[in-house]
Design brief:
Blueprint: H1 18-29, H2 32-35, E1 42-44, H3 46-49, E2 58-63, H4 67-78, E3 82-91, E4 94-103, E5 106-113, H5 121-135, H6 138-149, H7 154-162, H8 168-171
Parallel strand pairs: 2-5
Antiparallel strand pairs: 1-2, 3-4, 4-5
Helix pairs in contact: 6-7
Length: 176
């Protein structure tokens, strides 16, 4: 994939591999970006940067200013999908809403918090990971995938390969 991508427009997936094209179709078919448009949705995680595994989920992050409104929109938009659930979670001291459901053979995770999407960890990590993948060779990508297959999270895999100790979610951001 190209180095400079408009992450707010998922059409870049159409330039990707077969799975990324299927992810685009799944997102498009359930109208996720359209239904979440009021919350600046951005696809993050492993599908955009091509380091997904067969059980990876489609991560869409959102920014809300009114938590109850966001929750109602998510419920109305996705509650009819298979295996839908929604939880409230405190992450790094911030209230988050996480909804999960299945559509078109993929597990979706819609994540919202009262913070602009470009300041959220998922987005920031993806940008760092994308750059590190672009700066390294195919063997680096294979090693990341191998570590993920062994059960490490994406952030843990990058930190392990780069020799970074401590909290991978905080310490990966040193590459911003």
């Amino acid at each position: 994939m190209e180095k400079n991508i408009d992450w707010t427009d998922i059409r870049y997936l159409l330039e990707g591999d077969t799975i990324q094209k299927q992810v685009y179709k799944a997102i498009h078919n359930c109208r996720a970006m359209e239904l979440l448009a009021a919350f600046d949705p951005v696809l993050t995680g492993t599908y955009p940067i091509g380091i997904y595994l067969p059980d990876s989920d489609i991560d869409i992050i959102c920014a809300f200013s009114r938590q109850a409104f966001f929750e109602n929109v998510v419920l109305n938009a996705f509650a009819y999908h298979d295996d839908f659930n929604i939880i409230h979670k405190l992450i790094r001291g911030e209230e988050c809403i996480i909804a999960r459901f299945k559509h078109s053979g993929f597990l979706f995770e819609v994540f919202g918090q009262e913070k602009p999407v470009n300041e959220q960890y998922a987005f920031r990590h993806m940008i760092v990971e994308h750059r590190l993948l672009a700066e390294n060779d195919a063997l680096f990508r294979k090693k990341i995938l191998s570590l993920k297959e062994k059960g490490l999270t994406t952030e843990e895999a990058f930190c392990t390969l780069l020799g970074i100790e401590g909290d991978p979610y905080e310490n990966l951001l040193q590459f911003e």
